Amino acid sequence: MEIIPGLPDDVARGCLTRIPREYFSKAFEICKAWKTEIDSSQYLQQRKLHGFSRAIVVLAQAEPGCSFSEAKYPPKPSYHLTVFEPETGTWSRLPAIPSCPNGLPFFCQCAGVGRRYLVVIGGWNPTTWMASKSVFVYDFVTAKWKCGADMVGPVRSFFGCASDFNRTVFVAGGHDDEKNALRSALAYDVIEDKWVPLPDMARQRDECKGVFHGGKFHAIGGYCTDTQGKFEKDSEVFDVEAWKWCHLDDDLLHTGMYPRNCVVDEKGKMFRCYEGNVAVLDGSVWREMAALPNDVRVRSFVVMWREKMLVIGSSVVDGVRNTYLLEFTDNKQYKWTKVETPKEYTGNIQAGCSLEI
C-alpha cells in the first residue's frame, strides 16, 4: 500500500514529517498507512533530523487569581496544563485529564518522555487534599490520555522528578503521609508502564529537585525529617548504567537554597536562578551571567530546552506572572526577550517541563 497514492514512499514520508504537531491526531486517523508511519519510532526522529521538530513547554498552571496565598480565605486553586510554543509564541491548553474533573492534582510533577509523551505523577487530590500515587500519560501523537500504573511504595509528596528523555521517569525523595522525609527512589518505564525501585539514597531528601543529564539522575538539595524546611546544599547522582548512586556532591548549592530553579541544558550545563541572577555552574563554582528582569524575580519558575531558558515569575507575591526568554550566544552574551502572554496564562506555576516533538 502506498503511503500517499502516486508518490514514492520516501517523498510521502517527507510530506508526513512536515505535519504540524496540533494535526498529528487527525493525520493518525486518515488511513492505516499514515497511522503506521506516524506511530513508528522513526517518525519523530526524522522530524528532528530534517529540522521539522518543534520545542514546546508544558506547565501545570493555575487559573489567574487562584493560588496558595497567605490570605485568610484565598481562592481555591484550579490547575490545568498550559502549552507554550516558543517558536510561534502561541499559548494553548492540553485536554483535561478525564478522571480529574476538578483540575490537576496539587503539587503534581510532570516530565516529557521520548518526544511523544507527557507524564503527570502524584500530587494531592484537589477535593480531598489526599496524596495520590496516580500516574497519567498524555500521547501527543494520538492527543489522548491514559492512566499509568500507580507509583509503588509509600505515598509520597514533594519528590524530585526528571526524565531521561527516552522512555524513563525517575522519582526520588519527598515525604510520606506522616511527613517523614524519604531516601527511596523509583524509575517508571513509560513504554512498559512499569515501576522499578532504585537503591536508596544516602540521605533523606524532602523537596529535592530532580534533573537528568549525561546518563545520570541528580537529586539536588532537599532536607531530612529532623531539619524540616532547612535545605541542604548537597546532591546525589544515580548512574543509570551502573544502577547505583555513584557519588555525593557536598557543595552544589548555598545552604538554605530552595533547589527548584536548578535546570540543565542539552549540553549538560547546570543553571540556577537565585537572588536576582542567573548563574551557570563552572566546574565547582557558580558564575553569575545575567541579572533577572525585576518583574520575574518573585517565585520564579525556570525551564530549559536546547540552550534557551524560559523564566516565569512576578514582581510581588501572588502577582501576575510575566514571562521572559533568555537566549545565550557563542560569545557569552545574553539577550532577554519579554514574551507576550495572554491573561488566561498568567497564573501560578507549580511544575513544568519541555519536549521537542
What sort of overall outline do the alpha carbons produce when their principal axes are compared? Answer: globular
In CATH, the topology of one domain is named Neuraminidase
Question: Kindly state the mean pLDDT as a whole number?
Answer: 90
How many E-type strands? 24
> Can you tell me the CATH class of one domain?
Mainly Beta
Gap from first CA to last CA: 27 Å
H/E order of the elements?
A: HHHHEEEEEEEEEEEEEEEEEEEEEEEE
The CATH architecture assignment of one domain turns out to be 6 Propeller
Q: Based on helices, strands and strand pairing, what is the structural class?
A: mainly beta
Assembly classification: single chain
Biggest sheet details? 4 strands, antiparallel
GO biological process, one term: negative regulation of cytokinin-activated signaling pathway
Organism: Coptis chinensis
InterPro entries: Kelch-typ_b-propeller, Kelch_1, KMD1-4
Protein name: F-box/kelch-repeat protein
Brief summary:
The protein is mostly beta strands and about 350 residues long.
Please tell me about this protein's structure.
This protein has 357 residues and is mainly β. Among the domains are: 9-49, no CATH class; 55-261, Kelch-type beta propeller (Neuraminidase, 6 Propeller), CATH 2.120.10. It is 8% helix and 38% strand. The protein has helices at 9-16, 24-28, 32-39, 41-49; strands spanning 55-62, 79-85, 90-93, 109-113, 117-121, 135-139, 144-147, 160-163, 168-172, 185-189, 194-198, 209-213, 216-220, 235-239, 244-249, 262-264, 270-274, 277-282, 285-291, 298-305, 308-314, 322-328, 334-338, 349-356. The protein is globular.
